[in-house]
Amino acid sequence: MIENSLVNAARGIFQETTLTSLTHITKESPESIDRGLAVVIPVTLLALQRKDLSDLHKLLMQAKATYDGLSPDADFAPFAGSKTEATKQLLEDVIGDRRLDVQQTVSNYLNIPADTVYVLLSASLPAAFSVLTRFGQDWDETRVKDMLQANEPDIVSKIPAEFGPLVTDTHRDPAMHAGVPPVTAADAIIDPTHTSPSSSSEMAEPHIHTKESVKKSRSGAGIWWLLILIALVGLWLYFGKGCTAQSTTSDARDTTSMPLVQ
Fold first, then answer.
1. What digits encode the pLDDT tens for the residues 22-71?
2. Which helix (H) or strand (E) holds 242?
3. Rounded distance, CA 207 to CA 227, Å?
4. Which residues, 6 or more positions from 100, have their beta carbon under 8 angstroms from its beta carbon?
5. What is the C-alpha to C-alpha distance for residues 84 and 122, in angstroms, rounded to an integer?
6. What's 104-129 look like in SS3?
7. Counting runs of H as helices and runs of E as strands, what totals does the chain give?
8. Do 153 and 97 touch, CB atoms closer than 8 A?
């Protein structure tokens, strides 16, 4: 068990004023906002954890330019000031080009609008980068990567089981296919390019009774019955002919001794 959970640290940043701001923006209840953050924060952190050092460095520099001064007192509500487009681009770079599918999956699970999920994902970014960079004091990608690696079990455990292991951004990093867990239903939604080897049960052809298969089966059975019938007829002709001849001879001999009927 890790000593400090990145997920818990990022969620702890959302104090009452920030949560109130998010409820005003989304028109959702505080309970819905809290449930949404509980999902999108680990999703965001897992997406970052799946990046290699090169991509992670680029994202850290992008976040550093997007969020001028990260601090525990920062307002993480999105769409504030002139950072709207920068936040949108950063979110797409973090989640990958399946962002809309991720939004819809979370929306369906939480029964909240996809637009609300987008707001929460956007708000989760500065919170995640704050805890990863010690509130903007250390942007070293190796240290950040080590933190994410150490927290991976905790991050995954906080993602609802219905989502399965989320696979993000594999369009931009095809090599990650070799290291991800087997595909699940959620993977197919989030990343349709993610595949895994078929099991032996999947490779086995199912036995389905169709008109064609039944006709074929009956045709095969009919051939065997015809062969058996031919064999029986042959045996009958061979043995029956001999028995008939013997019976005819015996009858001929017997009639000579029989008295004539007047």
1. 999 899 999 999 999 999 999 999 999 999 999 999 999 999 998 877 77
2. helix 211-255
3. 27
4. 114
5. 9
6. HHHHHHHCCCHHHHHHHHHHHHHHHH
7. 11, 0
8. no
Give the containing element (helix H, strand E) for 3. Answer: none
**HEC secondary structure over 156-204:** HHCCCHHHCCCCCCCCCCHHHHHHCCCCCHHHHHHCCCCCCCCCHHHHC
* Cβ neighbours of 45 (radius 10 Å): 28
Residue 171, both tokens: 């369009």
pLDDT, tens digit, 9 for 90 and up, residues 146-179: 999 999 999 999 998 877 645 443 444 443 333 3
Which DSSP letter does residue 244 get? H
Q: CB–CB of 84/78 below 8 Å?
A: yes
Q: How far apart are CA 78 and CA 44, in angstroms?
A: 15
Q: pLDDT averaged over the chain?
A: 73
pTM over 0.85: no
Q: Which phi and psi (to 5°) does residue 2 adopt? A: -75, 150
**CB distance 62 to 51 below 8 Å:** no
Q: Are 171 and 22 in contact (CB under 8 A)?
A: no
Residue type, 251: D
103 close to 121: Cβ distance less than 8 angstroms: yes
| pLDDT score at 110 | 92
How many other β-carbons are positioned within 10 Å of the β-carbon of residue 169? 22
User: In the prediction, which pLDDT does 18 show?
Assistant: 86
Q: Decide if 87 contacts 78 (C-beta within 8 A).
A: yes
